[in-house]
Design goal:
Layout: H1 10-18, E1 22-25, E2 28-34, E3 42-46, H2 53-70, E4 78-84, H3 93-110
Parallel strand pairs: 3-4
Antiparallel strand pairs: 1-2, 2-4
Helix pairs in contact: 2-3
Length: 120
Amino acid sequence: MKKKNRVLKNLEFQEIISKRNRLSKDGFYLYFKNKENLEARVGISVSKKIGNAIIRNKIKRQIRMMLGQILNFNEYDYDLIIIARNSYFDNSYENNKKILERLLKKVKINRKPLERKNYE
C-alpha cells in the first residue's frame, strides 16, 4: 500500500470516525466516509491492549497486505479507518482477509456515495 493511500494525521482519523458510519465483524471495526481525493485512503489502528509494538506492527503489516490484494484504491469510493480488535487473533490470516473483504463489499453495497467530484 502506497503512502498516498494512507490516512496519517490524527485530525483525519478523527474526521472519519466522527461521521459515525461504522461496520464491525469479528476482528475489525471499519469506519468510512466518502473520499475527497482521487484515490481512497486507509488508516489502520491497533490498540495497545492487543500487545506490544512488535505484535501491533505485525497486525498492521498484515492488514496492509490484505488491502493491497483486495482493494483497488482508484475505484473504491470511501476513505476508511480499520481498527483491529482482540478477536483478530481468533482467526487465521486467510479468514481475516475474507472477513475484511466482506466488510469492504458491504460498505460499497449498502452505501451509495455522494456525488463524485470532478477531479479534472
